[in-house]
Design a protein that fits this description.
It holds the Pfam family ComGG. Keywords: Membrane, Transmembrane, Transmembrane helix. This is Competence protein ComG. The protein has one domain. It has a 5-stranded antiparallel β-sheet, with helices on one face. By secondary structure, the chain is an alpha+beta fold. The chain is built from 2 helices and 5 strands; from the N terminus they run H-H-E-E-E-E-E.
């Protein structure tokens, strides 16, 4: 029994060390999840900007005969803005969209729109699309 002095202190320090490691691990997981949710929210905002501007732009293109031709412009929304560029090609229009969120993130989309059939084809999306 006399050789067991300090054993309780050693066990307590070891348990404290173990609990600290578990706490630090869960704190790290929490911070990662928090960053992921921020990125997911930003991604969804940019996706919403692209889809909303797509609908608005296609509506404007359908009324193009009355208003003249669309070439380029900017559409402003509450959550950001979208620049667009319309280029005539032989069987429709090539449309480039560039969405900017309110905190400065960018996402681009490029697609071909056939006005006669209303078909969207060759959709490409990402950051590295040339505008």
């Amino acid at each position: 029994m006399t050789n067991e002095r300090g054993m309780a202190l050693l066990v307590a320090v070891f348990m404290l060390f173990l609990l600290s490691l578990v706490f630090i691990h869960y704190l790290s997981v929490y911070e990662s999840e928090k960053r992921f949710l921020q990125l997911e929210k930003e991604w969804n905002t940019l996706d919403n900007l692209l889809m909303t501007s797509l609908e608005d732009l296609l509506h404007q293109l359908s009324q193009e005969e009355e208003n003249g031709s669309l070439v380029a412009g900017k559409i402003q929304y509450e959550t950001g803005s979208v620049n667009y560029k319309v280029t005539k090609v032989k069987d429709g229009e090539l449309i480039l969209l560039e969405a900017f969120s309110s905190i400065g993130k960018v996402r681009r989309a490029k697609f071909h729109f056939n006005k006669d059939t209303g078909e969207i084809s060759l959709w490409m999306e990402g950051v590295n699309i040339q505008y």
